[in-house]
Amino acid sequence: MMGSIQSLGRVGLNVLERLGRGSLFLFNTLAGFWSVLKRPRLLIAQLFSVGVLSFLIILVSGLFVGMVMALQGYNTLIDFGAEESLGVAVALSIVRELGPVVTALLFAGRAGSALTAEIGLMKATEQLSGMEMMAVDPIHRIIAPRFFAGIISMPILATIFSAIGILGGYLVGVELLGVDAGAYWSQMQAKVDWNGDVINGIIKSIVFGFTVSWIAVFEGYDAIPTSEGVSRATTRTVVHSAFAILGLDFLLTALMFD
Amino acid sequence: MKNETTLDDVLVTVQDLRFSRGSRLIFDGLELKIPRGKITAIMGPSGTGKTTLLKIIGGQLKPDAGSIEIDGQDLGSLNRKGLYTLRQRMGMLFQSGALLTDINVFDNVAFPLREHTDLPEFMIRDLVLMKLHAVGLRGAWDLYPSELSGGMARRAALARAIALDPMMIMYDEPFTGQDPISMGVIVELIKLLNDALGLTSIIVSHDVQETISIADYLYIISGGKVIEHGTPEALGRSDSKWTRQFLDGLSDGPVPFHYPATPYQEDLLGKREAAS
Amino acid sequence: MKSKSLELLVGLFMAIGLAALFFLAMKVSNLSSLGQSDGYQVTARFDNIGGLKVRSPVMVSGVRVGQVTDIEYDNERYEAVVSLELDGEYRQFPDDTAVSIFTAGLLGEQYVALEPGGSEEYWEEGAEAELTQSAIILEQLISKFLFSKASDTIEE
Fold first, then answer.
1. Under a CB-based contact definition with an 8 Å cutoff, are residues A204 and A249 in contact?
2. Is the ipTM of this complex over 0.90?
3. Average of pLDDT values for A116-126?
4. Which one of A129, A218, B10, B106 is most buried, by most CB atoms within 10 A?
């Protein structure tokens, strides 16, 4: 009994300690913003590997999610004779929820895990240490560009996901199932609000981008410098990111769309 | 002590250093003086924290107690900026080389120059080629670290460490895992660079023969303390049992062959009893 | 050379992102109609607005001419005050235009319908509609019908 209480306390202390280290690390990374501004090339290189390389998976997933939404939505709406609202149903669910959330989950799996593995391996092979000894701060030189590239890429990817998803819905709903094209677009335009829906969705994806990038670079930087340590850190990045995304999504949704 | 006379011009002074990792005490009142312009070797068995010592001197780890003074500057009182300025004058050769794996040898050597100077690209090119020539890798400038052998990677890292013409270089186990030829090359290089560039070199190693052949001064550490120090000749005449065991590579002595354990007989018989 | 093509791809990525945002703004959301701020506001008072919501459409002869921008409750007169924004191109509504709340289809959403009157004066910015008709509440309608049926039977 005492043993289990003790180990519970130890786990709690560990969690708090990690949170403290993570926050300090975040402040240092944010302080690296100026050095990133001074070296835009580093940022561009990371935008490529974080953003551009995630483009294809986002494009394909967005298209299929939109197509499935249209198929499912059509079958439900046709019972009420309301299939003209298909565009609204697809657009609202994608712009508000699926766009930001699915993009963030895919991003954590595709780019987040890669970031953790890369930074963890650099740590394991003493590259970060070596950089420090060359009087180059690895947080400014390595971590900060990756972190900010993640924050910038996420809303762009989510926007692309939403746009392509709505087009996918159009393909299935209008071209395949025969919903009137005019109704698809005009109902959508009447019901989707720029501030309330589109901007809020983008705000969500920025928050997710911040969180996932933070988790990914911190897990890499904090990894135990062995091959097992790095593989564990990579797994943790994906799992913790998924929890954080879903939890934050609930919170943000409650705040935004009361 | 008897060799104090050679320690008149000191670059690095370590006083009463204490450091522990978790519950394990690694340094317990370590005292060191590194003479300027010489090759100083710090030797000791594996696991005595030699690499840790280099990281403490480089300011990457903070000691629990004690002071480190480098070229008149107290490491503990330096702020981050001061520490980074000091590090520009220190080079460190990691055991693995620690080359950046996503850029080639040329860019690796150019890395500290590009980070810390505003030199135009053509001057950086000349400087990098000079440093690479010094370690004999000018022809390998466009190879990536994964294409280099262990010895070549260490030489490339050495070229990078001297890129900013530092006042001192720390070598972390430079001879470990090298074939005899590349070992010879590295021994030669350390000596050559030290004399040609007027560097102060600190070598951390447990390879006795190679280290003694080039070191001007030796420290032997064990159990978190300096056991003995002096010139290689002086230590060669030492009658300390511990020093003899380490320098001569004897399997048994003050450092026992066996890891501390319950008596052998008891262990074997006790097991059988428990099993039956 | 290598970094040039890298920059090009990142630039392309950014451009696609911007295009997607433009698409969401113009084709998907109401930003295109939000942009036309040359519309004008008219208020109308109702006893009961039923299920009317902000952003419900305002129609005349089945054509959309604006939307509901605000719904408030007047504590003193015990009425709902609905603000309508009408598009700038429809400025010629007589000031005795009737404002009603109707339902589109059986389960459909509610909308504001305008029926132009015969006055020579037109609505202007901030005008208040004089003739309004509240939403028809299904329960009230049914109970009215039942009561009248019941009283009919009693009379017989």
1. yes
2. no
3. 92
4. A218
